[in-house]
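DNA starvation/stationary phase protection protein
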Amino acid sequence: MSDSVKKTPAGKTKRENAENGFVATEELRDALQSVLVNLIDLQLVGKQAHWNIVGPNFRDLHLNLDEVVDIARKGSDEIAERMRAMHATPDGLVGTVSKYTELEQPTNGEILTTKAVDLMVDAVQTTVGVMRRVHDAVDEADPTSADILHDYIAQLEQQAWFISAENRKP
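Predicted structure tokens:
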């Protein structure tokens, strides 16, 4: 018998590793998968805008878009790894992201900074909206996963505020 497998006093086999940990319900898995898909797409939409924006305040927006992409990248990794820790299999394949994203897709080509602001604020708010929509069910099933959502909701809402200020008028 390997070091990671022991017999309990009742004679049952017990694994002494993460395999005995918390297992996500199908509902929890699906909720986190929807968050994952939209975080992955937020990275893609953000980079598409980052590479193709032109116009007033280009440099500031160009740099800010990378901040959004970094948050989405870290968030998608954290959500996917949390899913694995709960014995769920994340799916970040392009076909899955393309099929299930809720984000509006930008057109190919140059994007005026003012249009990019609107596109990105909408993309961030949509991603946050997915997190808020699944939050209560996630929190009921696994408060630890809900804590992860809290962090990324706060970070992304702050970015939406930063970016939207580009087009706002007092």
